[in-house]
Amino acid sequence: MAAKREHFGGRSAAILALAGSAIGLGNIWRFPYMVGQTGGAAFIIIYLLSCLLLSLPIFLAEAIIGHRTHAGTFGAMEQLAPGTKWKWLGLLTVLSPLVILSYYSVVGGWSVCYLWQSLTAGFHLGEIGAVSSAFGGFISKPGAPLLCHTLFLLGCAVIVSAGVKSGIEKFNKVTMPLLFVLIVVIMVYSISLPGASAGVEYLLRPDFSKITPSAVAAAMGQSFFSLSLGVGTILTYASYIRKDENILFTGLGTVGFDLLFALMAGFAIMPAVFAAGIEPGAGPGLIFETLPYIFAKMGASAPWVSAGVAVLFFLTIVFAAFTSAISMYEVGVAYLVEQKGFSRPKAVILIFVGCWILGALCSLSFGPLAGMKIFGLTIFSFCDTLTSNFLMTFGGLLFVIFVGWKMDKAVVRDEFTAGGASRFNCAVFDAFWFLLRYAAPLAIVIIFLTNFFA
Ligand code: TRP
Fold it and tell me: 2-453: what fold?
């Protein structure tokens, strides 16, 4: 089985794929609104620190397991801790990405709809409240959101069915550079708007009184979500990285790109929000409610420019969501193919059916199924809260405990230092080991408790 496993073409392909998984709605949708809600520059500083001191070590822990075993989550646990309860971690991490995929595909579908709207009818000026209720009206009707969810998931199925090298790697090779070009264009435009400098200042001048414990927990949680940690995606992708690659450099590259993209998304959105004279703390509705209003407002004086920017913007979101969604899809496919002996097409179809049904329930929970509650939450919020607040952090905790406390230190060092070949990696191994064994588990428990009680 091992001999047949596909590999990414090289380091750049591996970083592109990992960055493709990491860069997604988390960067363009979640990061900017969290910055807006949690105090601008101060939040960004804590976020930078959490990425480097918390998320990078967790990322490396997952990557080390995948790279060592060259197996998917379940197979990796079977190899490293055969016959133990750790196999449940393998199973958990097969299921959580599929739950994320189901509701992620719903939001991906909304982006497809908004892209369609910006290509055809455009956005029309009303009160900002009217634009928000247009969004509320749109997601509560069953038809269009369900259709777009289907299209989005189908797109993922097509890419994943083509395989790791000719599907996922090729798609990322084209879309990832394009994403960076698109976001730079939007950012330059946004910063050039009259009145945008207040937004730039907001992102650069920290107000340290905003650093509260819940802001710290939110920043740590966001860095977790943005790097797709704790659900076995990084593990699975790392298992496709060639044996002689340097895992630390791959990790640094991925974290660096993910951070850069989140910051650029912040600089693409906040200056425009300030230029339009809107409150930055709008929350999760920021890109689907506030931005269409801004596009409509710009459209009154420069309709073509506004329509063009709107198309570029929603195109960016759709592509970014795609590259993340296919990484979640691949985790399930790898499991069914390697552990259950399915053919790739069969695995792709089975996952499509399962995620389509759960996603459809999530989508309908904004309308006809709004009354159906699980622990007081709608189906969509339940899937989101369950995965983002609990399964991802729990999975991350188990991964760091596994690598830091269960795996042989010599094996971890061997993976981390590329068999001792990298002098730089050898020099920083002790710092990594400390962060992994003590700092990361403690930080995760803090996020977990804050999520639970806040
Ligand atoms: N990192 C992705 C983003 O920023 C979201 C995400 C969360 C994810 N968990 C994941 C992606 C698991 C792939 C796998 O949008």
Answer: Hydantoin permease (1.10.4160)
